[in-house]
Design goal:
The chain has twelve helices and no strands. By secondary structure, the protein is mainly α. The chain has one domain.
Length: 290
Amino acid sequence: MESKDWILLISLAAIWGSAFMFIKISAVDFGPILLVALRLLIAGLVFMPLLLQKKNRFLFKPYLPGILIIALISNALPFTLFAFASLGATSNMLGILNGTTAFLTTLIAYFWLNESISIKQIFGLCFGFIGVIILVNPSNGSITILASICALIGSLCYAFNGNYLQKYHYNSNKIVLIGWSMLFGGLLMMPIAVFNLPDQIPSFNSFLALLWLAVVSTGIGYLGFVRLIDRIGAVKTSTLTYLLPVFSIIWGAIFLNEKITVIIFVGFIFVMMGMYFANSINTKEANNKS
């Protein structure tokens, strides 16, 4: 990897890791549903100049079924679940539980894509499961049980989407899929958002948090993600998974004064080990194929 690839990788991890902090800031004022609707619509507009290019316009119709599935499973549903979870959890907990996506993806791939699971990956699933149990237990005052369930189901949605893309859209144009799915995800949320408007106008800080979430974390972030895959491949780009929880903990501690308790630290270590072992064999296999 060249130095500019490392810069893009770390920058993207820092941007996505900050998303949980800004969700925490803005969800209270906007409400989870309106926040997600606006986030997706604005992020979709970031993609619009690319979507309207001649080479991409003609892909809309054949990609439409996949766009709608991704809009629901990868955008509207998990974004909403994490927004609701933020009302009962610290941002660092959201980032750590989001990390469970890695070994949930491995588990789904085993049952749906018939991919084999090695001993290392089984250890990874066990470590990850232990980490989740540590983090969501009632003695952890940093998150409620309901928030834990929302975050884990949201991570399960991301894991399902990863396998769906691998199975049906491995060679598809990711810009078209991601961009249109964001717009449609926002449109799907708007009818519900109309009946869930806040009682008062959100604060200035909440508007800034929304803009960061929509334009930087979601719009520019996903453009950088696609760019990184094109430059260094999906395998090396997957190392983002390990960096996201780290940055979510750092930003939460610096800007929200969130404490890193012993329970959070131990659970984090187990989740990180789960991610590492769950992905280790897949990485080798992918390298052999390349």
